[in-house]
Amino acid sequence: METSQRPLDLDAVQAFVLVADLHSFTRAAEALSTTQSAISLKLKRLEERLGRRLLERTPRQVRLSADGVNFLDAARSLLAAHERALGRLQSSTVRLALGVSDHIAGDGFPAILAQLHAFDPGVVVEVRIAASRDILTMYDRGELDAAIVRRDGERNDGELIQQERMAWFAAPQWQPRAGEPLRLATFSQQCGIRELAIRRLDDAGIAWVEVFIGGGVHAVAAAVTAGLAVTALLVRVKPTGAVEVGKRLQLPALPLAQVVLHSRVRDPRAQAVLRTVVAAMKNDGD
Question: Residue 195 and residue 188: Cα distance in Å, rounded?
Answer without folding.
Answer: 10
